[in-house]
Amino acid sequence: LYPQGSEEAKAFVLAFLKRSMPKRKDETIQDMLTRKAVVVKHYSKNKAKPKRKKTKGFTAKQRREMRLFEIEPEQQRYAIFLPLHELWKQYIRDLCHGLKPDAQPHMVQGKLLKADLHGAIVTVTKSKCPSYVGITGIILQEFKHVFKIITKEDKLKVVPKLNNVFSLELDGFISYIYGSKFQLRASERSAKKFKLKGTIDL
């Protein structure tokens, strides 16, 4: 260590400042030394922000193993789900502003295509598989490719959307759903734009 005020210490500080501030003139450095305080700026490197981990839900395999979507046999009774159907009817009336007689059919149809169908009573009116025709019941679950329907006979039917036409009636308004064009999850339908077509094949 050098004693304060020594020439060696001054020379060291002066050389250090010249290296640290090469663009400063000698006069400026000397002026800074006479103030007896030197502030050397330190630029810290920007630290990369840690990426937030997305919370993952259950996989399809885990949902199957946990039987999240299975309806227990003792719960497979038509009468249990009639209140759900009443709630669905009120939901559709509110959605379509009362289903008045002067309501435009295409407007009602457009809203039904995007509506939640859990609780609706539907009937299979056309099918490439004759055994499906005539099945009527309340929709308990809607998946991308199938409807799970509980019939008045307390039987749970899994009806594919593909190659089937479904009808539903509410306050005298009958709507037809072409399942082949309806293969979407309920959450996806609300954002999809459906095109109106004159005729659609099974």
Question: Topology of this structure?
Answer:
Elements: H1 7-20, H2 26-34, H3 60-66, H4 82-95, H5 105-114, E1 121-127, E2 136-142, E3 146-151, E4 156-160, E5 164-170, E6 173-178, H6 186-189
Antiparallel strand pairs: 1-2, 1-5, 2-3, 3-4, 5-6
What's this, in brief?
It comes from Chloroceryle aenea (American pygmy kingfisher). The chain is an alpha+beta fold. It is built from six helices and six strands.
The CATH first-level class of the domain at 60-190 comes to Mainly Beta
CATH overall fold name of the domain at 60-190: SH3 type barrels
Strand order of the largest sheet: 4-3-2-1-5-6
Strand content: 15-25%
Please identify which CATH superfamily of the domain at 60-190 we are dealing with: Ribonuclease P/MRP, subunit p29
CATH architecture of the domain at 60-190: Roll
Number of helices: 6
Determine the structural class based on helices, strands and strand pairing. Answer: alpha+beta
Question: Separation of termini?
Answer: 95 Å
Secondary-structure element pattern, one letter each: HHHHHEEEEEEH
Rg measurement, Å:
37 Å
Helix content: 25-40%
Mean pLDDT: 80
> What's the overall geometry?
elongated
